[in-house]
Amino acid sequence: MENNTDPTSTFFGFAGAAMAVLLTATGAAYGTGKSGVSIAAIGVRRPDLVMRSIIPVVMAGVIAIYGLIIGVIISSVKTEHYTFQQAWAAFAGGLCVGTTGLVSGYAVGVVGDAGVRSVAHQPRLFVGMILVLIFAEALALYGLIVALILCTSNKN
């Protein structure tokens, strides 16, 4: 089969996949690290709360999965007839899920850090912390939805 695709379109398509994985993993790593520090700090005084406090770390890890999903979808496209429109849609989708994952990971880290420490002092704040974490996670989910639409709307 003849390959009549411009190499730059393939580059931008795969750059979108790379940005999706890279940026969401960076956000997830920040959220995990920031929340993990507070979990370790409260674990010294309140070891009974450590397992309940793991929730921000789990939510941060889910953000990286969003980028992985888009990265796999973008890289599974057949490149024999890859158009500029498909490449730029993949690039835009990767940046969309990547940047929303980055800021969502930052938000989960900040909320997780403050929330875990607050719950150690006042356990009734647990439900409020979970609600704010859900809204912070929703930012990445919005980016995932837009990226899915961009990356699957114009496939061959």
- C-alpha Rg, in Å? 19 Å
CATH architecture: Up-down Bundle
The CATH class, by name, is Mainly Alpha
**Fourth-level CATH superfamily:** lithium bound rotor ring of v- atpase
Distance between the termini: 15 Å
CATH topology: Four Helix Bundle (Hemerythrin (Met), subunit A)
The number of strands is: 0
Gross morphology: elongated
- SSE order: HHHH
Low-confidence stretches: none
Keywords:
80% helix; Four Helix Bundle (Hemerythrin (Met), subunit A); 156 residues
Describe the protein's topology.
Layout: H1 7-45, H2 55-75, H3 84-121, H4 126-152
Helix pairs in contact: 1-2, 1-3, 2-3, 2-4, 3-4
Describe this structure in words.
- It holds the Pfam family ATP-synt_C.
- It is found in: Endomembrane system; Vacuole membrane.
- GO terms for molecular function: proton-transporting ATPase activity, rotational mechanism.
- This protein has 156 residues and is mainly α.
- The protein has a single domain, classed as Four Helix Bundle (Hemerythrin (Met), subunit A).
- The protein is 80% helix and 0% strand.
- It is built from four helices and no strands.
- The mean pLDDT is 91.
